[in-house]
Amino acid sequence: MNPRRTAFDVLRDVTGQGAYANLALAKRLATAGLDARDAAFVTELVAGTSRLLGTYDLIIETASGRALNTLQPAVVDLLRLLCHQALSMSVPGRAAVASTVELARQTVGQRVTGLVNAVGRRVTKRSLAEWTARLAEGADRMGALAIRHHHPRWIVESYAELLDEEELVAALDANNEAPRPTLVVRPGLAERAELDPAVPTRWSPYGAVLDGIPASIPAVREGRAGVQDEGSQLVALALARAEAPQGPWLDLCAGPGGKAALLAGLAAERGTTLLANEVSIHRAELVERALAVFPEGTTRVIRDDGRSPVELQEHGPFARIMVDAPCSGLGALRRRPESRWRRQPSDLAELTPLQTDLLTTAVGLCTPGGVIAYVTCSPHLVETVGIVEAVAARTSLDVLDAPALLDEVPGIAAGPFVQFWPHRHATDAMFLALMRVPGPHQ
């Protein structure tokens, strides 16, 4: 199949059906019959277009003189792909326009080719830098940063609460760079040397960064290693390092299973077991798959509602609990290129009650003197510090010095919490708080 047609089909899946770009891309590439070069072209075209979608939409509106919602959705996607080829992939403007006009004829019909040709010619008269400069004219500071660095304004504002302007720009730019895959071994099942030629991660003793396809590594194919951001590895490691009484461990929100697999290996090294809970059927199946490599009796997967647990109560209490709470994902924008344009500020109002309930549940399930890790893949204060401080005040939790348990990692701000950043640590912007439940083991 023509690579541009494949990219168009994937983008329609993403924008029209709400698919995740990486999953839709993998599904389409599996049946497209493309060689490695064309597959790489499609991957960049889809990921890059998804990442800069909002910027390209402003360019299309300006170049067409029409509001986006007055154009056919398929035509908008064609023009988005044209923008990325001409403005970010060094495809000559004439070639980008001509190929998109032909693709429009094939997929939408002859009637739209004139519009696509006219808008495409206007788009290619300027570079991306020239377009963003024009679009930012007259905007205030936050608006200009949002346009120049390809983020919705509200996300820029949320980052600005935590970073000065120099770091803010660096963080936004880091979100626009696709990360290389980071691998992780399952403790007790594989050694990091088995991940060769991947390069060891800077701080996690279990990780390695790969230039290539993870499935090319035998340990990954066999399930003895997996793909996991170094920040996710470090928050699990911090929970394992904290002083706590002996007893079983719990991953309260375990899907899709990456942290659960690392915790299972760490728990086994300490002579205990891991219970992984995941309420979603599909995600619970992913957790079971991730934990299937561990010896029988060392792990168990259940499906209970973390807000009002029943089965969990029967298995507790737990000495260490991971609460990897559902969140906005604002810290994983490097890996989820479409998500910045999907999320809305209103999502936080839906997520924060759930996050509060899950952390409160963990308090009730934890052994006296036990430790809870509250983790989000978001740096937003409403989802992080706000949740922890509210629950800690209500339950008398003792907030621990989490950075002290990761003292080998530089660039962590002063205070009891850990906040990773892609521009400082080359990780997702993971947040970690560690808390001890009052009891005799304090």
TrEMBL record:
<keyword id="KW-0808">Transferase</keyword>
<dbReference type="InterPro" id="IPR006027">
    <property type="entry name" value="NusB_RsmB_TIM44"/>
</dbReference>
<dbReference type="InterPro" id="IPR029063">
    <property type="entry name" value="SAM-dependent_MTases_sf"/>
</dbReference>
<feature type="active site" description="Nucleophile">
    <location>
        <position position="377"/>
    </location>
</feature>
<dbReference type="GO" id="GO:0006355">
    <property type="term" value="P:regulation of DNA-templated transcription"/>
</dbReference>
<dbReference type="GO" id="GO:0001510">
    <property type="term" value="P:RNA methylation"/>
</dbReference>
<dbReference type="GO" id="GO:0003723">
    <property type="term" value="F:RNA binding"/>
</dbReference>
<keyword id="KW-0489">Methyltransferase</keyword>
<feature type="domain" description="SAM-dependent MTase RsmB/NOP-type">
    <location>
        <begin position="155"/>
        <end position="438"/>
    </location>
</feature>
<dbReference type="InterPro" id="IPR023267">
    <property type="entry name" value="RCMT"/>
</dbReference>
<dbReference type="InterPro" id="IPR035926">
    <property type="entry name" value="NusB-like_sf"/>
</dbReference>
<dbReference type="GO" id="GO:0008173">
    <property type="term" value="F:RNA methyltransferase activity"/>
</dbReference>
<protein>
    <submittedName>
        <fullName>rRNA cytosine-C5-methylase</fullName>
    </submittedName>
</protein>
<keyword id="KW-0694">RNA-binding</keyword>
<feature type="binding site">
    <location>
        <position position="305"/>
    </location>
    <ligand>
        <name>S-adenosyl-L-methionine</name>
    </ligand>
</feature>
<feature type="binding site">
    <location>
        <begin position="253"/>
        <end position="259"/>
    </location>
    <ligand>
        <name>S-adenosyl-L-methionine</name>
    </ligand>
</feature>
<keyword id="KW-0949">S-adenosyl-L-methionine</keyword>
<comment type="similarity">
    <text>Belongs to the class I-like SAM-binding methyltransferase superfamily. RsmB/NOP family.</text>
</comment>
<dbReference type="InterPro" id="IPR001678">
    <property type="entry name" value="MeTrfase_RsmB-F_NOP2_dom"/>
</dbReference>
<feature type="binding site">
    <location>
        <position position="324"/>
    </location>
    <ligand>
        <name>S-adenosyl-L-methionine</name>
    </ligand>
</feature>
<feature type="binding site">
    <location>
        <position position="278"/>
    </location>
    <ligand>
        <name>S-adenosyl-L-methionine</name>
    </ligand>
</feature>
<dbReference type="Pfam" id="PF01189">
    <property type="entry name" value="Methyltr_RsmB-F"/>
</dbReference>
<dbReference type="InterPro" id="IPR049560">
    <property type="entry name" value="MeTrfase_RsmB-F_NOP2_cat"/>
</dbReference>
<dbReference type="Pfam" id="PF01029">
    <property type="entry name" value="NusB"/>
</dbReference>
